[in-house]
Design a protein that fits this description.
Layout lengths: L1 E2 L2 H9 L4 H9 L4 E4 H13 L3 H11 L2 E3 L3 H11 L18
Parallel strand pairs: 1-2, 2-3
Length: 99
């Protein structure tokens, strides 16, 4: 199982240097999960770049299993974002099972 995030999806859509690694990681896993919140975030980011249709096709094509976000998960995400969120330091990609 692998959980996909917005940065990996956007890397694929934009053909960034990590696109192949992200695509390969997704292709080699039999179960891909994505949170409903990540779908919303990915759509917001993609729409801002006029890539909304492409994002829908990518997520649908991956056959992702969409999982709900509980209040506890949302709160942890907010706490984790605060010290290193956008503009607060160098970007950091999560490792260890996440793309």
């Amino acid at each position: 199982m692998i959980a996909v995030d917005t940065s990996a999806l956007m890397a694929i859509l934009l053909g960034e240097s990590e696109a192949s690694a992200c695509a390969n990681a997704l292709a080699t896993n039999d179960r891909i999960v994505i949170s409903a919140a990540t779908v919303a975030e990915a759509m917001i980011v993609a729409e801002r770049r006029n890539l909304g249709v492409e994002m829908v096709k990518l997520v649908d094509g991956l056959g992702c299993e969409t999982v709900a976000v509980t209040l506890g998960v949302a709160r942890r995400g907010g706490r984790n974002y605060a010290p290193r969120g956008k503009g607060l330091g160098p970007p950091r990609r999560e490792r260890g099972g996440r793309v």
